[in-house]
Amino acid sequence: MQVKIVEVGPRDGLQNEKQPVTLAGKLELIQRLAASGLTHIEAGAFVSPRWVPQMADSADVLAALDLAGPVHYPVLVPNEKGLDAALAAGAREIAVFGAASESFSRHNLNMGINDSLSAFAAVTRRALDAGLRVRGYVSCVLGCPYEGEIAPSQVARVAAALREMGCYEISLGDTIGTGTPNRVHEMLAAVRKQVPATQLAGHFHDSYGMAIANITAALQMGVHTFDSSVAGLGGCPYARGASGNVATEDVLWLLQGMGLQTGVDLRQVVDAAWFISDLLGKMPVSRVAHALGRS
Ligand code: HMG
Ligand code: MG
């Protein structure tokens, strides 16, 4: 069975790193990730540079990539202004990003859930008309830094709205990593009533070391797409305590061990993990990068 990995390190990872990474550094990271066989690499975000300065060079990143080739390079877009910039930069795929928590939505987007869904509907319509693919995110599907536990029905409502407006896939974000497998089951049972599992992705942050267990639970519920970040980079600037996404190399180890296919070369991802960690002057967070070591 095939599992799709959406590599989010160059966006979700680097958006939260204090140490700035040069354009050349970002491009070498993306080139290494693409060479490993990853076919979906989130490459940047057309958001306010005042809110997330690390993504300010996203147009330059896209300008250097082969956007017509086999690798998808989605970028985050929060509003019409972001869509204008993404279109001008030649993006072929965007992602809109909502939340299942009202407070998180206001902290992350400066608007409530309903207003954000109206804005995304307009952005998505324009993007689809322009021939782009649109992915949707729901943040705080298992917990919110401001509101605590989030009801599965609330996640299902936002996921259904994103699908309804035309998102081809809905990525469910455990933004602060507080989820556990039983709660993943409960949440997915509610969401699957609205969106088929084949259109869902799991986006697990590993703050409490639960991401691999949660991915296993999501696989049992029929989800076969997972977002992950090389070296376990990442977090979210609007979610205190959120650590990085689950490391791509840890996910690959799990999936290989389960006999699931990804088309991604683990050794090359581990090398990319050491490359970006050296550039940031830190150690990879992932267990597998340490266990397999440098080439
Ligand atoms: P706002 O301040 O309400 O925006 O921010 P505004 O419309 O009032 O405009 C204020 C200024 O921002 C204006 O500039 C606009 O032009 C500018 P000024 O006239 O003052 O010079 N502006 C923009 N500039 C560039 N690109 C744009 C843009 N829009 C307005 N697109 C806004 C609202 C949505 C812009 C802001 O809240 C924002 O950028 N938020 C993004 C936050 C973000 O990127 N968070 C991280 C990504 S989400 C995440 O990590 C979670 C995820 O991984 C899943 C999970 O883990 O759960 C996806
Ligand atoms: Mg995230």
Automatic annotation (TrEMBL):
<comment type="pathway">
    <text>Metabolic intermediate metabolism; (S)-3-hydroxy-3-methylglutaryl-CoA degradation; acetoacetate from (S)-3-hydroxy-3-methylglutaryl-CoA: step 1/1.</text>
</comment>
<dbReference type="InterPro" id="IPR013785">
    <property type="entry name" value="Aldolase_TIM"/>
</dbReference>
<keyword id="KW-0456">Lyase</keyword>
<dbReference type="GO" id="GO:0004419">
    <property type="term" value="F:hydroxymethylglutaryl-CoA lyase activity"/>
</dbReference>
<dbReference type="GO" id="GO:0046951">
    <property type="term" value="P:ketone body biosynthetic process"/>
</dbReference>
<keyword id="KW-0479">Metal-binding</keyword>
<dbReference type="InterPro" id="IPR000891">
    <property type="entry name" value="PYR_CT"/>
</dbReference>
<feature type="domain" description="Pyruvate carboxyltransferase">
    <location>
        <begin position="3"/>
        <end position="270"/>
    </location>
</feature>
<dbReference type="GO" id="GO:0046872">
    <property type="term" value="F:metal ion binding"/>
</dbReference>
<dbReference type="GO" id="GO:0006552">
    <property type="term" value="P:L-leucine catabolic process"/>
</dbReference>
<protein>
    <recommendedName>
        <fullName>hydroxymethylglutaryl-CoA lyase</fullName>
        <ecNumber>4.1.3.4</ecNumber>
    </recommendedName>
</protein>
<dbReference type="Pfam" id="PF00682">
    <property type="entry name" value="HMGL-like"/>
</dbReference>
<dbReference type="InterPro" id="IPR043594">
    <property type="entry name" value="HMGL"/>
</dbReference>
<dbReference type="InterPro" id="IPR000138">
    <property type="entry name" value="HMG_CoA_lyase_AS"/>
</dbReference>
<comment type="similarity">
    <text>Belongs to the HMG-CoA lyase family.</text>
</comment>
